[in-house]
Design goal:
alpha+beta, 18% strand, 592 residues
Length: 592
Amino acid sequence: MGPAARLAALLAVLAFRAGDPAEVAARGDTFSALTSVARALAPERRLLGLLRRYLRGEEARLRDLTRFYHKVLSLHEDSATPVSNPLLAFTLIKRLQSDWKNVVHSLEASENIRALKDGYERVEQDLPAFEDLEGAARALMRLQDVYMLNVKGLARGVFQRVTGSAVTDLYSPRRLFSLTGDDCFQVGKVAYDMGDYYHAIPWLEEAVSLFRGSYGEWKTEDEASLEDALDHLAFAYFQAGNVLCALNLSREFLLYSPDNKRVARNVLKYEKLLAESPNQAVAETVMQRPNVPHLQTRDTYEGLCQTLGSQPTHYRIPSLYCSYETSSSPYLLLQPVRKEVIHLEPYVVLYHDFVSDAEAQTIRGLAEPWLQRSVVASGEKQLPVEYRISKSAWLKDTVDPVLVTLDHRIAALTGLDVQPPYAEYLQVVNYGIGGHYEPHFDHATSPSSPLYRMNSGNRVATFMIYLSSVEAGGATAFIYGNFSVPVVKNAALFWWNLHRSGEGDGDTLHAACPVLWPTSGYTSMDRNSADPAARDLKTKVLAERSWRSPLAFQRSQKSKTRVREEKGEQASGGGPCQHCLFLANGRQGSGL
């Protein structure tokens, strides 16, 4: 699976699960779906209400303390106040014996903070876990890598790609939001704890820079300090082989915390190492990005995510064309679909405005309560993995008439039977922070695949509908085809996963590029279709379905042959072309 820009992914496990939707959603990871991240706003609003009440209580308490202060101060400022006055003498003794004790030991402050803590504990179960913080930090690093983003720019709220001396703005938010030193420290520390000093060093460097600029201005919410950032950055540089930087940072640390014996010992160690190997003082350390063993096509994948690949324009290749598609279906004769042939091998087609805004919204609403962390097959188990970050759910056709209408439309367009057991249920996917799905096949590539053990058939084709738009990122990249397709809201992307022989098409290796700036998080819905003999077809609309009928497979292959025979007869620049959203120069300007 993998509609490239799906920000919302619902992939359950092959059927609706029983249970309370709220409980199902609660089991998911907050960072992995934009809907979950948005849901986290509610508990923070509750915390803001608690803090507002606390501040009001504290303001009232401080006003009363200020009143007491000025009352006593006025007595001391009045030089004419005779202590011989028995009333004033009495009040002086009372203040010293009783009033000041009540002021100092007042329970009002502790009662205010206790109420705040109690309220926090009631909300705490609804807050993201530490694993979410780690996942969100890794997502920022993923965006940093795939789109070559500059960490210093990210800290300022600017999304810039830096290649050598060239700086390119990838996306300009309407409102800039900058990170604090503590924010940058937390990202760097996640990488540091993983032993990933390639990512830890630039984030910790930015943390040190920001902490230096605000040194002495302690913020209540901060967990880290300049000393913490210097300490971690020094050791990260040492682990990376830059002893001189480690020494200089450790010496700076001792300026702020001279009694720290551990860092003092480190300084002696670094000085000894440099004395024994003077060349280390001038050697420039080259940081190597950690390798991802399972992703051998990383450079191609990331290049396609960054540039949309080396896609030719329709005007240079006449066999890439636009047309009104009817598939000889009475349904489509009355309402033809605008088709754009994106690529020939693999054969990939984009159907514009396949669903309406209202239909997309309905599907999103139906799926959202059932979203769970997306998983992949690992032996006999279904497991969440780092190379697929999203949430997904499966929708049965019986859930809503909109899905029945959608099935009829897909069947009319593809000639495939979309009813189970010939097709999978619709799968809806929602992507979270930096949500992605690294290069993968939709069809099974091994006889040991669970698809075969379940006798469900291999996936013949994929039909993917984009249920929302994205501001930046999220393209679907076809690795061996060397092209990528940006998200086109309400459009559907279709391709065949198998050759006519039933063998898998290796050119369909594809990926969902990380979402840089989502809108609603939903970008596609998949439907898969399969054949027991040819083993499985997949359609994606940010929900997916698979067809499994031998007859459907034969019809689909005939349709495929007919489409390829027709392509030479279609004229580039025909009527439908002026309506296509993903053409020629426009293609180069879409996405990233």
